[in-house]
Amino acid sequence: MAHSKAVYATDHAASVLQTHSWRTVANSTPYLIPHLRSDMTILDIGCGPGSISVDLAKRAPNGHVTGIEYVPDPLDEARSFASREGVTNIDFRVGDIHSLAFPDNSFDLVHVHQVLQHIADPIQALREMRRVAKPNGGVVAARESAAFSWYPENQGIQTWHAVTERMAKERGGHPTPGSYIHTWAQEAGFPVGRIQKSTGTWCFSTPEEREYWGGTMAERAQSSGFTTMALEGGWATAQELESMARGWREWVMNEQGWFGVLHGEIVCFK
């Protein structure tokens, strides 16, 4: 993401990186698995701490993965993670999704996960992704959240949802665009017949899953860039942030609780 055009409503605090580090190909990009080859060159945009990037590199042992982020903050962790996993066919660098620093036709696969919703110009981003994808088989892929649902009713989580959506819209972002990312791809130059659409889900319901998801969300409400932005921008009061954190902690402790995320997915063929 470009620093000047990023509208990400948080930062790369430990609680945020913990959430992102959970992501793998299996739980976050399963729709890509049929399209992966062992010799692919892959660009993973918005790579964060590198968990998906490293997994892609493992699945393309004869290829290469480049992960980019709009700020350097998470990249040391990404490099350390790759080293711990013994993955060498990968590199990480700072990059701008709106103006990718790569020649035309450079990659077999150009991928984003939960990135387009956080930038000011997703159509320009998809144009750039299309430009650097190889012709005659190059793939551009994206997965973005489309809707949230949870049980039981919880005022703190409801406040979190309302505040995060309002923050994103007023900062120029596009909350939950998964239901219409295929229209962005068409505007970016992909013919309708070259855009494959699908959906995927996350569901957090076991005690361990609730602790992971709800625990990190509670931390975000109290000590992350989201907290600072919400207070400084007037989107939430300290009392509302405390209500969010308390709501997430109550949800974690409810053995009947579950939280679901519906994602929209596209695979676009150049």
TrEMBL record:
It comes from Aspergillus candidus. This is Putative ubiE/COQ5 methyltransferase. InterPro entries: Methyltranfer_dom (IPR025714), SAM-dependent_MTases_sf (IPR029063). The lineage of its organism: Eukaryota, Fungi, Dikarya, Ascomycota, Pezizomycotina. Keywords: Methyltransferase, Transferase. The keyword Methyltransferase applies. Residues 37-147 form the Methyltransferase domain. SUPFAM superfamilies: S-adenosyl-L-methionine-dependent methyltransferases (SSF53335). Signal peptide: none annotated. One of its GO terms (biological process) is methylation. One of its GO terms (molecular function) is methyltransferase activity.
